[in-house]
Specification:
Blueprint lengths: L2 E2 L26 E2 L10 H8 L9 H10 L1 E5 L4 E3 L7 E7 L2 E6 L5 E7 L4 E2 L1 H6 L6 E4 L3 E7 H10 L1 H27 L2 H16 E2 L11 E3 L5 H8 L3 H13 L3 E4 L2 E4 L2 H9 L10
Antiparallel strand pairs: 1-2, 3-10, 4-9, 5-8, 5-10, 6-7, 6-9, 11-12, 12-14, 13-14
Helix pairs in contact: 4-5, 6-9, 7-8
GO molecular function: DNA binding; DNA-binding transcription factor activity
Keywords: DNA-binding, Transcription, Transcription regulation
Pfam families: cNMP_binding, HTH_Crp_2
């Protein structure tokens, strides 16, 4: 329901019994539309869903229609939300935490294709073409997700032409991102790929650290990541990841705080990511 926020009078009120029209120059109070809070969803989680880059670009009516079909589920760290090869049944949105799109090599090594963060949506392709799920979806940390059933998504696609176009855009964006990652894997040294991945993690999960503890330009990746996690994300060994992280730390680029990565010098990290500053990884 739309709600008009009241505004305090800017001019003295007339005496009782007299009428005076409001001044013509006063602005009309805005009508603010707020989506209802889903049961089990905290206000900050609702805000993260609403402000997601893709979701925020939808019309208010479509956003409301999607949320009306969603249910909230809390997933513990390490839990598998969807298993590779299974029949797809639900479309997934991330309200808080992080989900890994994972698979494994024949020798048992894990490989994480991507991390989904707050505001990201995934799983529509398998629902649309009725193919088995391509990747495991695993909670990287304790996470809150929105789940839209297959029947509800089909109904939305039939009744909301805007959603069909929006999903095409979302999947094109994801495909281009996968192409970039494949190109990086084939053409860039590990040090550069580590720096690029840290930049992406900053964009997804970054926030300013506690003021006064580190320089103001520093950023904290608010996601607990082990060297094994980074190795799975970058298709590299832990030993090589450790070597790159040590060099970045020696340059003053990285720090650590309670198991989380701090980027102390974002510009120098950008120099490594672009190849302007090269690291010696021969011994990594």
């Amino acid at each position: 329901m739309a709600y008009v926020f009241p505004q305090r009078a800017l001019h003295p009120q007339p005496h009782p019994g007299t009428l005076r029209p409001p001044p013509a120059h006063l602005p009309v109070p805005p009508v603010v539309s707020r989506a209802p809070l889903l049961p089990g969803l905290r206000p900050v989680e609702s805000q993260r869903i609403e402000s997601g880059a893709w979701f925020a670009g939808l019309s208010a009516s479509l956003r409301a229609a999607i949320l009306a079909e969603a249910r909230v589920q809390h997933v513990k760290r390490g839990a598998r939300l969807v298993e590779r090869g299974a029949v797809a049944t639900e479309w997934v949105g991330v309200a808080s935490g992080a989900l890994g799109l994972a698979t494994s090599w024949r020798d048992g090594r894990a490989f994480t294709m991507e991390l989904l963060g707050p505001g990201d949506w995934y799983g529509d392709i398998a629902l649309i073409d009725h193919s088995p799920v391509d990747l495991d979806i695993v909670a990287q940390v304790h996470s809150t997700v929105l789940l839209v059933p297959l029947a509800s998504l089909q109904q939305l696609l039939n009744s909301q032409p805007e959603l069909r176009h929006a999903l095409l855009q979302l999947d094109c964006r994801r495909l281009r991102h996968m192409f970039r990652r494949l190109e990086e894997l084939q053409t860039l040294p590990l040090s550069q790929r580590v720096a690029i991945k840290l930049q992406r993690l900053l964009k997804q999960f970054g926030r300013p650290p506690v003021m006064g503890v580190v320089p103001t330009q520093a950023r904290l990746i608010e996601l607990s990541l082990t060297q094994g996690d980074l190795a799975a994300l970058l298709c590299a060994s832990r030993q090589r990841i450790n070597g790159v992280l040590r060099q970045l730390q020696a340059l003053g680029v990285l720090g650590g705080s309670h198991g989380r990565i701090e980027v102390l010098l974002p510009q120098k990290l950008a120099d490594v990511a672009s190849g302007k500053l090269m690291l010696d990884t021969s011994g990594a």
